[in-house]
Amino acid sequence: RQLVFQDVGTFWPGFPSYNYTTVNNFISKLSTQFYGDTTKLVAGNEISIGLPAAASLQADWNYLGNWYINGTLIYPWRIMKASVDREALLAISPRYETANFNLSLVASFYNWDKLHFGINARYRGFFLGTEKVSSFFHFTDFTGIDIYFGLKIRFLKGDCPVSKSDSSCGINEYVKFKKKGRATKPRKLK
């Protein structure tokens, strides 16, 4: 509900001890207290609020063997006057990566003033990391702690031959149709 208080004031003794059973009960009591009417405070039953939107730029560069560097910029973009805020983010992340192992360090600025250092690792499908590694070592500027972990389960992909450039798989890498051990195109419906 949209509530509007305009040029009103009140003296409300016993306010903290009032027992509210529903939101509508509370709104009716507020309206009565400020306007002397149970419905005058309610200006409408709908409000519009924008979701957090952002422009994002990301780059990943393989600069030497198994060494990579990733850069991410997320800039908030407010579409509506009333909207949920999205913080800006600038992150630089060097990493060492192989098929079975990954180790990454992350330096990130949140909202251009909060510097965080993080670390994460992956072994096959299991990954573990934190975005605030400093919170594990000292608590002088403690603003929170985080740790995340997970397990990625891979499903078998189709039987597309990778050595032939004239593969019948096209862009469909999850081909499930096989004919005599070779991948074939799925039939088109007419």
Describe this structure in words.
There is one protein chain. The chain is mainly beta and 190 residues long. The chain has one helix and eleven strands, in the order βαββββββββββ. A hairpin with a 3-residue loop joins β6 (101-110) and β7. It is elongated. 3% of the residues are buried. Mean pLDDT is 79; it is low at 173-180.
Question: Could you say which overall geometry the principal axes of the C-alpha atoms support?
Answer: elongated
Helix content: under 10%
Q: Number of DSSP helices? A: 1
Low-confidence stretches: 173-180
Q: Assess the beta-strand content as a share of residues.
A: 35-45%
The end-to-end span amounts to 52 Å
Mean pLDDT: 79
Can you summarize the main beta sheet? 7 strands, antiparallel
Q: Which sequence of SSEs, written as H and E, runs from N to C?
A: EHEEEEEEEEEE
Strands, count = 11
Radius of gyration: 28 Å
What is the spatial order of strands in the main beta sheet?
Answer: 3-4-5-6-7-8-9
Structural classification: mainly beta
